[in-house]
Input
Amino acid sequence: MYLQSNLQDNVFCAIPNFWDGFFEKKVWTDQASRIWESYKKYEVAEENKRLKELKSKKTAKGVEEQKRLQRDKEEKIHEEGTTESETWNWLTFFEENFLNQLNGRTTRSTKYPTVIEDKCSLLRGRYCRTNKMRRAQESTGTTQIDFLIKSIEIQNDNVDWKNMNIGAEFTVSPSTSIRKKKFLQLSRCAREAYCDQPLRRFMHGFLMFKEEFELWIFDRSAAYSSGRMGIIDSKEIFVRALCSYLLMSDEELGRDMSVLRKNGQSIASFTGSDGNSDQLFEIKYDPLIQSTTLATRGTTCYKTRDKLTMIEYPWSRSADNADVRFMKYARSVPGVVKYIASQLVYQTNSHLENLDLSGTDPWDLKADDYNITQGSNYHLMTLPSLERKRVLFRIAMTPCGRKIDTRGSILEIVAGIRDAIKAHQGLVDISILHGDISEGNIILKDLTTDDNSHGMLVDFDCSVKLKGDVAEDEELFLTGTMKFMALERLENANFLKSTIRRTYRHDLESFFYVLVVGSVEYESVGEGKSQNLDVWCVNETSSCYPHKLALITQLEKLLDMFTPSFKGLKELAKNLRTILFKDGTFFATPEDRGSIYRKMIMAFDETIEDIKAGRIINPTFIARRYQSTIRAFTRRNLIRHLPVR
Output
């Protein structure tokens, strides 16, 4: 459900120049064509031979027996009506007799000769069939993939997601009945690969149905496809695609090229950033922070080995990186991470710029599998230019911290949110609005001599300059993280179909939601007992707004969802609700912003004193999200159908 919501309006099918953009005019294109020509010559001869054998049979029974014998032959062809088992046998035959000739001159076939030039492309990948169950991101607990392509250097079939280059889903069902299901399964596998390869730039995949196939590519902006093609009618494209996938370099496969991995070390290099000399940072392999959704900004953060620096990799919507710009503005604000250096790493234009999306509407995943809906002119005009171009930056900052939803104590979370609010006030005082307060943008840290903040703000991609108490510029799209978004913004988007200028109060309301979500979702409470607020993060404001409004106006129902370790924070939640909403329906932004900041910080201070005095217990809880499955879709959503009023 969350994956489908995440991909809604982010899937583009039947792109007319998909094949040309990803498979033509590459260093291996001619080699893939030569393999196809060799295979075609073999298949035509084999088909003629089989047809001659069938014509020699005088009875229907004899014909059927001959067909059975042909299917059992060592020589395989891919023909109409091929079963799944026969498809696997054909793939094995094709790889062993045609593709493996590219492993070296000694393996060239005399029976099925392929023209191999002296400087031909060698195989870089190999097939791997798997029915093993893999780690999953959703409550089903498992993710399965039918077929993958991995590096040829990996000899065993027990690969994991970090080794997967390309994934595929096979079925003998017709595409019209199962296309959406298989697409979502392939998307789930792509998401798993991104979780183990968080800096991956893009990923190829394909679907194979009874009579059709479809080529796909996934990146952090969307999923794009060639459209469905007949396996028999478009056999050349199908065979050449299989060849191409095994010939692609790591860069052409979309794998990360920015981190140098050598002798067990992972090195992030900043070359002459901001006029400084080159800087090298050794980072820990496992990310400190990473996104678990597919179509997202995909921010990933790593700690350095010396634990002094954090390296952030955000996918920005603009080459004019707001994250860097506002971090520099905020150097003097306590409780905000400090900028060190930055560098542009990659742009999606590198692989998307030649795709023709002008006549391609997004696939409405809420409708029937085969139905492609018509988008509005506004949607089509703005979507490719504003949303489909992403820029990957690398930013070094200090200090290091940890995610707010990891194992810790209640006191750490309360003090961390309070200090993040103080940092937010410091930003507003210099006319900066953070604009995306969420659990992913608050880190907890140990106290230092330079900064005694328990919590710090990160990620300024949605930040804006303030004019008075409101954003200087209007939003074209509803940006931010849906789960933590203020009710007034959701209300406008839902009923008026427009955005409103963001204010400091919207961000303060988001801090309240961080506390509430943490109190409901962070602690592991045993199977069958856990609850969540995922209804707040669906992709449609028409569903998100009423669910959130109902729980805020009927607060006791929300407080009943607090897990045992967080029950002592119920009074704090009540006080914050009163400060923000008064009688429960006040959404406006007060002119006296100092008053609301003072009241909220005081409420946190009183709770901290109660914890220190023992009036509220301070247990160390076990984090639910890192005990088994990773959380569902909670990251940044971009609602694209809202015109500016």
